[in-house]
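Ops channel
N.P.: pipeline sanity check, posting one input/output pair.
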């Protein structure tokens, strides 16, 4: 703490308090036991490493964390690879299709959506075992370009955002049965906050809420479809492509830019992470929100991952 001469003189003329003594010693601001330290220099974000996941010319299509917080990476080369937190490859398998978005259930099953090929083609969610064997399919009734999805482990539901029909669809994980859908088209410049405008991705949040990467901002809804708030209005140039949640923080990624915007759940902007990665495609965060993985193209031209840690 920096103390001016006037303040110091006044302090010497009085009884030295514990607070002033701590200030002279340069002690950091106290934080209540069990409380989350503020986002200050004492808890700064640091780039903690990077690694390539393929060769020049290949691309990452999606990433997700498994129950062990290992990173699962889908490649356009039809490979799905798993890495530990420092980039050591733990497993790999080949699929019969080009994988798109994916999520990993608590039992280790990988729920993956084949990459979108053309309007009018049917996109079906495939459930893969650890070695890539297809265990079951669901979502056959979807004829649209599906965006992001996540598994709600509390009720064993899969929640998907649909870019073409501008809605959010819920499935039962065990049976694959569609349970419901909500949303209305907001692509024609609608000012209705409940209307959806190209919902590219979603992330589940506490209090029965979810956040959608909706056009040029992030929108928070109750999982039943009621609008709550908008996050990041004016922070993104064109379109938010990916969103992640962890530890009370929301991470928004605009495709092909190198920055990740970090927000509190109330919408307060906390930090911009300049990842140094080119052609970004996805972001994933650990449950406590202190580790973030960004996928895209490294400076070498190879597809890869950059890991950021909040210390």
């Amino acid at each position: 703490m920096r103390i001016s001469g006037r303040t110091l003189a006044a302090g010497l003329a009085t009884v030295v308090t514990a607070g002033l003594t701590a200030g002279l010693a340069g002690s950091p601001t106290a934080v209540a036991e069990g409380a989350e330290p503020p986002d200050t220099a004492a808890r700064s974000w640091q780039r903690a490493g990077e690694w390539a996941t393929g060769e020049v010319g290949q691309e990452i299509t999606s990433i997700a964390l498994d129950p062990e917080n290992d990173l699962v990476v889908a490649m356009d080369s039809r490979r799905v690879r798993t890495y530990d937190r420092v980039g050591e490859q733990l497993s790999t398998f080949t699929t019969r299709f080009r994988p798109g978005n994916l999520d990993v259930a608590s039992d280790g099953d990988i729920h993956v959506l084949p990459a979108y090929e053309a309007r009018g083609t049917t996109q079906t969610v495939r459930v893969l075992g650890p070695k890539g064997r297809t265990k079951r399919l669901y979502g056959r009734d979807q004829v649209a370009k599906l965006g992001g999805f996540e598994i709600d482990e509390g009720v064993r539901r899969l929640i998907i955002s649909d870019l073409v029909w501008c809605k959010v669809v819920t499935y039962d994980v065990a049976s694959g049965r569609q349970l419901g859908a909500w949303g209305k088209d907001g692509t024609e410049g609608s000012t209705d906050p409940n209307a959806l405008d190209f919902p590219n991705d979603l992330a589940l949040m506490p209090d029965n809420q979810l956040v959608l990467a909706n056009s040029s901002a992030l929108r928070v809804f109750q999982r039943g479809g009621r609008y709550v708030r908008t996050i990041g209005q004016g922070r993104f140039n064109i379109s938010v492509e990916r969103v992640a949640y962890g530890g009370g923080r929301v991470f928004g990624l605009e495709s092909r830019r190198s920055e990740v915007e970090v927000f509190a759940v109330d919408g307060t902007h906390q930090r911009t992470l300049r990842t140094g990665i080119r052609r970004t495609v996805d972001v994933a965060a650990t449950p406590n929100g202190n580790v973030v993985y960004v996928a895209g193209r490294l400076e070498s031209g190879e597809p890869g991952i950059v890991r950021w840690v909040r210390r």
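N.P.: looks fine end to end. The radius of gyration is 22 Å.
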